[in-house]
Amino acid sequence: MTSQIADAALETMRTELESGVLTLTLNRPDRLNAFNVQMGVDWFEVLDRIDADDEIRVVIVTGEGRAFCAGADLASGAATFDSEQGGAFVEARGRDLGGRVTLRIFRCRKPIIAAINGPAVGVGLTSTLPMDIRLASTQARFGFVFTRRGIVPEACSSWFLPRVVGINRAMEWVATGRVFEADEALAGGLVSEVLEPDALVPRARELAAEIVENTSGVSVALARQMMWQMLGATHPMEAHRLDSKAMNYMGAREDSREGIESFLEKRSPTFPLRVSIDFPEDLGFLKEPPYEP
User: Fold this and answer.
1) pLDDT tens readout for residues 200-217
2) pTM, full prediction
3) Rounded CA gap, 144 and 177, in Å?
4) By residue range, what is the domain housing residue 55?
5) Are 21 and 212 in contact (CB under 8 A)?
6) Which of 36, 115, 177, 210 could bond 204 through an S-S bridge, CB–CB 3.0 to 4.6 Å?
7) Nearest to 51 by CA among 98, 5, 101
8) pLDDT tens across 90-106, in order?
9) Coil, helix or strand for 169?
10) Judgement on whether residues 102 and 167 belong to the same structural domain of the protein
């Protein structure tokens, strides 16, 4: 089944929707799926449609060809990151494009599984940090190579990376800027599994199917934001307040009743709530702090 997302509108990606799972394939194989401005535009387009389409329950992101994403496209040469010389990766008000994409992935209401099939470096790696599950092929390679290019970690990775792997491991990888193997990524907690190439996407689909078949989409959307946003909490009381609001909201709705009744009746649940309509906007989720230039 082809996704409702019109691939004609996406120049750097292709999508396919089957059984509630959208497979999003980065599709610039001639450039190792390197990130360019158009890919940023496509990310904003596709994420808006993912949030609005209730047929999509889970997203899998992978790369076409032998790479996942080789980082920023450096075709424009030495001025690539120089906004004063026309570099496009730093936008007006000084915001980096990769960071804007990463913040939008962070705000996504659907769980995202990264199936990293090959090299993932620079923004091709930092953009996966707000994704929820990262799986790697044995052919994957990883690198936070910024210091070797005379720049710094971007795409909000100074916030995400230490929270995902810890400050010591994060600084080792960032300070050296070296490229490392999938086994090291697994040992450091950057990925949760390393699989043979032919098993990578099937494993991602297996995990996605488990989510689709057994869970409430609104519950997953809420849990995703609760987990991520509480990483920045200063006291467990903040989590208690948020948990209480979310429990009160969901406990009074049809998905809670269906979850309990299906369990007692020993049958598969059919949850009626829809993320596009029933996600509660008044619990404080998805509010980005004001940006000061």
Assistant:
1) 999 999 999 999 999 999
2) 0.92
3) 5
4) 7-211
5) yes
6) 115
7) 5
8) 665 667 889 999 999 99
9) helix
10) yes
Predicted confidence (pLDDT) at residue 3 exceeds the cutoff of 60: no
Q: Coil, strand, or helix at residue 194?
A: strand
Q: Which residues pair with 58 in a beta bridge?
A: 21
- Tokens 């404080």 map to which residue? 284
Q: Phi/psi of residue 82, each to 5°?
A: -100, 100
CB-based contact 231:83 (threshold 8 Å): no
* Tokens representing residue 112 in the block: 């995202």
Radius of gyration of the chain measured on its C-alpha atoms? 19
Other Cβ atoms within 10 Å of 77 Cβ, number? 8
- The answer to whether position 266 is within a domain reads yes
Contact by Cβ (8 Å): 26, 13: yes
Sheet holding 13-18, edge to edge: 13-18, 21-26, 58-63, 112-116, 133-137, 193-195
Percent of the chain with pLDDT over 90: 81
Residue ranges with strand state E in 19-105 = 21-26, 58-63
Question: 190: domain CATH number?
Answer: 3.90.226.10
pLDDT tens per residue, range 107-127: 999 999 999 999 999 999 999
Q: Do 71 and 123 belong together in one domain?
A: yes
Residues 264 and 180 in one domain: no
Would 288 be classed as within a structural domain? Answer: no
Residue 292 placed within a domain:
no
Enter the tokens of residue 75: 């075709």
Longest dimension (CA), the chain: 65
Summarised one tens digit per residue, pLDDT across range 251-280 is 999 999 999 999 999 999 999 999 999 999
pLDDT at 288: 63
Residue 266, Cβ neighbours under 10 Å: how many?
Answer: 6
Q: How many residues does the chain have?
A: 293
